[in-house]
Amino acid sequence: MKRSVRRLAVAAGSAALAVGSLAAPAQASSPGSDCPAGYACGWSGLNATGSMLKTKVSMATLGTWDNRIRSYYNRTSGVACWFDGASYSGSFFAEPRGNGVTMYDSSLDRKISSIKLVRNERDCDDTPYVEWYSDQASKAAGFGDLNGDRRADLLSRDRSGRLWFVSGTRAGTLIGAGWNVMTALTRHGDLNGDGREDLLARDTTGKLWFYPGNGYGKFGARHLIGAGWNTMTTISAVGDVTADGRGDLVARDTAGTLWLYPGTGHGAFAARKKIDTGWKSVSATTGPGDLNGDGHPDLLARELGKLWFYPGTGKGGFAARRLIGAGWNVMSSFISVGDVNADGHNDLMAATQDGFDNPYAGDSANELRLYAGNGKGWFAPGQIYDQDWYDLNGGF
Ligand SMILES: [Ca+2]
Ligand SMILES: [Ca+2]
Ligand SMILES: [Ca+2]
Ligand SMILES: [Ca+2]
Hints:
The protein is elongated. The chain has one helix at residues 2-23, and strands spanning 40-43, 52-55, 71-74, 79-85, 89-95, 114-118, 154-158, 163-166, 172-176, 182-186, 199-203, 208-211, 223-226, 232-239, 248-253, 258-261, 273-276, 282-289, 298-303, 306-310, 322-325, 331-335, 348-352, 368-371, 383-386, 392-395. The protein has 396 residues and is mostly beta strands. A 4-stranded antiparallel sheet has the order 9-8-7-26, with no helix packed on it. A 4-stranded antiparallel sheet has the order 10-11-12-13, with no helix packed on it. The relative contact order is 0.11. The longest helix is centred in the N-terminal third of the chain and has 22 residues, at 2-23. The chain folds into 2 domains: 39-123, Crystallins (Gamma-B Crystallin, domain 1), CATH 2.60.20.10; 154-395, 5 Propeller (Tachylectin-2, Chain A). It is built from 1 helix and 26 strands. Residues 339-341, 343, 345, 347, 372-373 line the site of one calcium ion (CA). Keywords: Signal. This is Repeat domain-containing protein.
């Protein structure tokens, strides 16, 4: 339901733009230019004509403007949600930040009764993080669980850069804002020896940061691991692939070389070692833990849409790969958080593309899927966990 409203919003915006460009040449100012920056505006007439209501705060009721608005324009830095019910109820039309000119949607013509101004489209009527749940495992997977309740957790980043801890019990907690400066986020168990899962993040300048987990889904003061990580196209915490009891990191550089960064167990990494070359076409890697039951963490890599299984040798390398399947280019996030369905086998979670940004992604867009591991290196067919993976900037 929410999805169809979103797609309608896109179509209506495009139509309004086309009409505006045809009518524009004879006019000194474009329709809606009387709406000041920072405001959402509504007009009593079509195409930003008649009298104008402007607001920079949400309005649960519209007073004399109730059921009068015929066209509208969002000039806030966020999203404006136009509802046909008071107090942000009923149907709504989400207009993205800085998008479009005056708009007219016949289904809401003279029906708008409240206006909600928010940071992200999800905030119109949904949680800012995706719906997430996991079953409680009988034994700890050793990774994927940030708060120690034996349920796999998610880190969900919304489009405006807020990072949320989403526990296996569906509860979401804000970690903080500003995470859009991070171009890679990865986690896989404890890296500094306190038994709590930690987080690694690379920023736009190429610095790699260590965020110690506090065991409750948040993180303590970060410390710098090093600079120069912008040469890496994929960075994945993979668990203990060297069998020394310390979690490790695997990264692929722009030349296509795959590197091992052995963990020291103190939130740092020792001198890197070359694992392999020829990984230039690999667009994603993820550390799913041990998938084939030999006790050594394995690696998954996507190359030209194919997903490959690389069995860990326990010596910091990987044995001959095996094809899992094709068609994985629809994925925008691979999430390796252990045993999500509590059957004792590590699983893979994956999210497809956002249908809003990728209209050609088709019916597979906006899905969060479970690929249940069978403990022998294979997955069951994908199972849809949620269909509201939209307006997000990754899951980790
Ligand atoms: Ca948990
Ligand atoms: Ca830790
Ligand atoms: Ca293995
Ligand atoms: Ca499982």
